[in-house]
Amino acid sequence: MNASPVDQISFQNPFVDELRGETSGNKGSRQVPGYCYSLVQPTPVESPHLLAWSEEMGDFLGLAKPTERGPAVDALAGNLVTASMKPFAARYGGHQFGNWAGQLGDGRAISLGQAVAVDGSRWEIQLKGAGPTPYSRRADGRAVLRSSLREFLCSEAMHHLGVPTTRALSLVGTGDEVVRDMFYNGNAQAEPGAIVARVAPTFIRFGNFQLMTAQGEIDNLRALADYTLRHHYPELGPPSPETYLRWFEEVSRRTAVMIAHWMTVGFVHGVMNTDNMSILGLTVDYGPYGWLEPYDPDWTPNTTDFGSRRYAFGQQPRVALWNLMALAQALTPLVPDAQALRSGLNEYASTLASTQHTLLLRKLGLTPLMPDEDRALTEALPQALSEPEIDMTLFFRQLSHLAPALMAAPDNEAALFQELIAAAAYSAAPNEDRNLLQWLRQYATRLRQEAASGEETRTTMLAANPKYVLRNYLAQQAIEAAQTGDLTALETLMHVLKTPFDEHPDHAALAAKRPDWARDKPGSATLSCSS
Ligand code: AMP
Ligand code: MG
To answer: Which of 221, 319, 465, 529 has the fewest CB atoms within 10 Å, i.e. is most exposed?
Structure first.
């Protein structure tokens, strides 16, 4: 099939066509009771130019890569609205940091409609930073280059790691400046603006349902639930109380799978508010996220959360459950037996445990031979890794390379372990590696029970343990270069993160341990919600 420019494709608009929306087009900030969305036109930007394009996403949607400037980029910046687009901002609410925040909504994201992919599936294209909507509250509806580049890079990197996520199609510079106080400390500065075109089957969040229930808009709640079932969970059958229960169970299951992936790749979302939880179980809203470098369950990159650490790495499984409970609460008007929603939550706990265990066994090159022993091994690992501040990515990658030697029961096993720890540890305090050494000895003994050869084991482990992840300081370096007009670092990262399990010997520096200077650097180690 020939690829078409995005300004020449035909958009589908089921969300707008099938749900109640407010159609005045008024962009003024306000409450919009009674509606699922507001029709709103993007606000044009000064000088849209393409900064980055996801080839995979483009090919999948049958879209031609745009030239730097022109109608396709104008469409991806919101400067050109074509006849088949019905741009809208969705209305939703949410719990922010545990507190009910009322109406939030798409304050700067505007969906253009759905594009039809080469396999016939339909994907919503949403512009983030496209200008004010009724949901902008006091903010400007814009996004800065640094946060847009981070969303663009990370959503594609997560996809290539196999983590359920929304995708990104393009990153467009706007030519406008946006004023942000990056650390909310009175140092507001003008920064270059940018817009990401992000892509997902839908961007419906837990918070869409929550707001309907909180406002007593039960007709809208039901309409939105039925819409979600019809378009995104058709395999569950026609809407009924029974179907709603199975749907909640499935959302719980998918959320558990997503969290299990986060916990095994070392991803910290940073703002797991219920408005940032996808109803499809996709990672959504890349803001002050970060990647674990020293393994530390208490780590979060989000400065807004430094006090309570509600969204720290190790809290994520618990927070997702809390968020699912909030969703269950929102769905109670649809099911006569509210208690029955509880079984969906059980699904969360069991899927999380089993998925995390399965993913970890793969990373360790183990087949499920010895359930009790293996569970003890995977459960002891977090504690063992956190004491000597082990870089999780480096650890698993080095362990994969070490597997053949360990399986041969070498005399110098202790020396191999020390080498592995030295290569992956940030702290070298004596005795802190005691638990890890003990864990490694047990692991090596267990590994030798495997029937596969050392080389086979190494190959399967290398396919489960990425060499490259989007280390916090690497994203920051790409941002600083892009702000001066140099896109090479961004392009190199895009290239490497597409195949993160490959060696890419020319780019080995991108797989190195975090350098010391990046330890506390703003933008690398610390991020805020200002974006
Ligand atoms: P977030 O913390 O990014 O998930 O955003 C929470 C809410 O604030 C959402 O309703 C966003 O649409 C809104 N928001 C964040 N930044 C802006 C902005 N610059 N302009 C308008 N709304 C925004
Ligand atoms: Mg959000």
So the answer is: 529
> What is the CA(524)–ligand 1 centre distance, in A?
22
Residue 504 and residue 468 in contact, taking contact as beta carbons nearer than 8 Å: yes
Beta-carbon contacts of 474 under 8 Å, excluding residues fewer than 6 positions away, are: 489, 493, 510
Q: Which amino acid appears at position 375 of this protein?
A: R
- Rounded Cα distance between 348 and 257, Å, is 9
Cβ contact 334:222 at 8 Å: yes
Which ligand minimizes its atom distance to the CA of 528?
A: 1
Residue 483 to residue 280: CA distance in whole angstroms: 34
Q: Are the C-beta atoms of 128 and 22 separated by less than 8 Å?
A: no
Environment class of 63 (CB within 10 Å of its CB; exposed 0-12, middle 13-18, buried 19+): buried
- Does the pTM surpass 0.90? The reply is yes
d(CA 457, CA 148): 39
Alpha carbon distance 230, 508 (integer Å): 46
Distance from C-alpha of 196 to C-alpha of 51, rounded to nearest angstrom: 10
Q: Give the integer Cα–Cα distance in Å for 197 and 106.
A: 14
Alpha carbon nearest to ligand 1 atom 8, residue: 107
Select from 91, 95, 208, 275 the residue to mutate for testing ligand 1; criterion: most ligand atoms less than 8 Å from CB. 275
CA of 368 to the centre of ligand 2 (A): 39
**Structural tokens at position 237:** 């059958």
HEC profile of 301-338: CEHHHCCCCCCCHHHHHHHHHHHHHHHHHHHHHHCCCH
In the chain the first and final C-alpha atoms are separated, in Å, by: 38
**Catalytic (active site) residue 275:** yes
CB 436 within 8 A of CB 390: yes
Buried b (16+ CB within 10 A) or exposed e, 341-354: beebbebbeebbbe
How do the pLDDT tens digits run along the chain, 531 residues long?
689 999 999 999 999 999 999 999 999 999 999 999 999 999 999 999 999 999 999 999 999 999 999 999 999 999 999 999 999 999 999 999 999 999 999 999 999 999 999 999 999 999 999 999 999 999 999 999 999 999 999 999 999 999 999 999 999 999 999 999 988 888 999 999 999 999 999 999 999 999 999 999 999 999 999 999 999 999 999 999 999 999 999 999 999 999 999 999 999 999 999 999 999 999 999 999 999 999 999 999 999 999 999 999 999 999 999 999 999 999 999 998 889 998 899 999 999 999 999 999 999 999 998 999 999 999 999 999 998 999 999 999 999 999 999 999 899 999 999 999 999 999 877 788 899 999 999 999 999 999 999 999 999 999 999 999 999 999 999 999 999 999 999 999 999 999 999 999 999 999 999 998 998 888 887 888 889
- The total number of residues written for the chain in this structure: 531
